[in-house]
Write a structure and sequence with these properties.
By secondary structure, the chain is of the alpha+beta class. Helices cover about 30% and strands about 25% of the residues.
Length: about 300
């Protein structure tokens, strides 16, 4: 019976998104308990032995509520595969690819999804001049929640990023797409809807994403039907192309000065979206008639370990 399932909710972690993960994990634990699960929260730090102990005896499932590196990049998924414990969200390969922005771009482009022009450059080269004509965006190769993202506009000096070690040894440089921010949540084999995110400034940054009142969510997005449908189709295709499971969220920029859907550009895929009070996928699910509790229950009921299949 579903009510007898023991679920370990792994949260926190050691990435730059630790605090967001703790909020997501607390909300998930509460919802699972209300749904009748024996939900046990575990705050993951550097002590892997403590994690192994928390997973003994093996639970019926692990709810992976981590965000960022060492949680949604395939590393934890690999450990759970070794232990033979079913877990929520995507498997090892899809998680590793989704966390790598350049690799994600390469894969989705092979199936016809439009992305901004870009290339990977050594971080040290940023001090030697513009890597492409402005305006452009500088992103870490493998970070989430818009951590470390910078926009360089025409006429502006590049910020001193060559020594910003949090960016990593290499960075992704992309052309800046003016316009509007759209996002699409996927649940299983279904696109939930398109949300437009309105916010102050040029970047939907960490503060805007996770602080109530800093961004406005327009659901459904007020865009032409051809753009709405194209975003839904592209998000579902990206989810399938990367081999994602459970839920994911794809982010887009939409230049509404371009005809049809030609101004729609895929930016990245988040294979473990947040579950905070201001998170986008639970909001889209709610509008589709799926409550928060139903969403987390569905994820647990569909938890998988490839070793067991």
């Amino acid at each position: 019976m579903t009510q007898s399932k023991r679920v370990v909710v792994i949260m926190g972690g050691i990435s730059s998104e630790r605090e967001v993960s703790l909020v997501s994990g607390a909300a998930i634990t509460k919802a699972l308990r209300e749904a009748g699960f024996d939900a046990v929260p575990f705050d993951l730090g550097h002590d892997i032995a403590a994690l192994i102990a928390a997973l003994a005896p093996p639970p019926d499932a692990v709810f992976n509520a981590l965000h960022g590196r060492f949680g949604e990049d395939g590393t934890l998924q690999g450990l759970l595969e070794l232990l033979g414990i079913p877990y929520t969200h995507s498997g090892v390969l899809a998680s590793a690819i989704a966390m790598d922005k350049p690799m994600t771009k390469r894969l989705v482009e092979t199936v016809g999804i439009r992305t901004p022009k870009g290339r990977v450059v050594p971080r040290a080269d940023l001090g030697r001049g513009d890597p492409m004509p402005a305006p452009y965006v500088i992103k870490p190769v493998a970070e989430g929640s818009t951590v470390g993202v910078h926009i360089v506009r025409k006429g502006e000096n590049m910020p001193p990023l060559a020594d910003e070690r949090s960016l990593g040894e290499s960075v992704l440089v992309e052309e800046y797409i003016k316009g509007r921010e759209l996002t699409v949540g996927i649940m299983g084999d279904r696109a939930l809807g398109v949300t437009e995110i309105r916010f102050q400034g040029g970047i939907f940054d960490y503060t805007a994403k996770y602080t109530a009142g800093h961004a406005q969510h327009i659901l459904p997005a007020d865009v032409p039907a051809v753009v709405y449908d194209a975003a839904m189709q592209a998000a579902l295709l990206a989810h399938r192309t990367l081999g994602c499971r459970g839920i994911s969220r794809s982010d887009f920029r939409y230049d509404d000065t371009q005809p049809g859907d030609t101004g729609l550009y895929f930016l990245e895929l988040n294979n473990q979206p947040g579950f905070t009070p201001v998170s986008l996928v639970p909001e889209q699910a709610q509008r589709a008639g799926i409550s928060f509790g139903e969403l987390v229950t569905w994820l647990v009921d569909n938890a998988t370990c490839e070793r067991r299949t």
